[in-house]
Amino acid sequence: MKNQISNKTKGVIYILLSAVCFTGMNTFVRLAGDVPTFQKVFFRNFVAMFFALFALIKAGESIKPAKGCLRYHILRSVIGLAGVFGNFYAIDKIELSDASMLNKMSPFFALIFSALFIKEKVKPKQAIAIAVAFIGSLFIIKPTFGNENLIASMAGFIGGMCAGAAYTCVRKLGIMGENGKLIVFIFSAFSSLVTAPYLIFDYHPMTLWQWAALLMAGLCAAGGQFSITAAYTHAPSREISVYDYSQVVFAAIVGFFAFGDIPDLWSFVGYFVICAMAVWMFLYNNRNALHKKA
Question: 204 near 40, Cβ under 8 Å?
């Protein structure tokens, strides 16, 4: 029992650490200023790629995918890269907390995609939570022609959807026994290769501060990826996933003090709705797990 409590505590600490790291990544991406999104995405993944490679070499592990895993690595990388583009574009255009919350729609989309492609059943209460969370996202997106940031908000929402699909691929890879560090490395390497040609043919010169900001964004991204992988290694999703929403709180604090961001009332309504559904799912999953043990 003590070990289980210890593992859960470690999982919570790691997931809170990942929330801090991803908030740092988003903050430094925005602080980099008017650097093109392609360039930001390259640096974000290039730094993470070296961290993942170092971790694999240090552990003496192979960089060869397990049998049958390559196609899921490619799918995860393509979809995950699209998610990063959507998230980064939103970060540059809308409040940091809005962009973070739209990205946190990913667990709900992961449920949908897991049901479609891994054949994991979505129960009625889970379906209700997904529908209500989607309604909550509309309060943040504000899908009217009067919203001058509608495209950026939609990009953030699509980024969250792609992240959910990418997490489904990661889950499939995990079921197949693939190495978590290798998943991070292949995604980072793929993203770097795809965005490198843009950097070569249309590089935008950067100031020393922009270089530093993007390198820090890459470091934070690596820290976030490894922390969240460690979190789910120590404890199941149903026990710790709700703590991932702490990133929205961190983003709101940093956004206010660093950029003067003040989300409007409708955004706060959206935050409340989505977080409420996340807490409900957390409690529902834990209750089901206890019933199964009984």
Answer: no
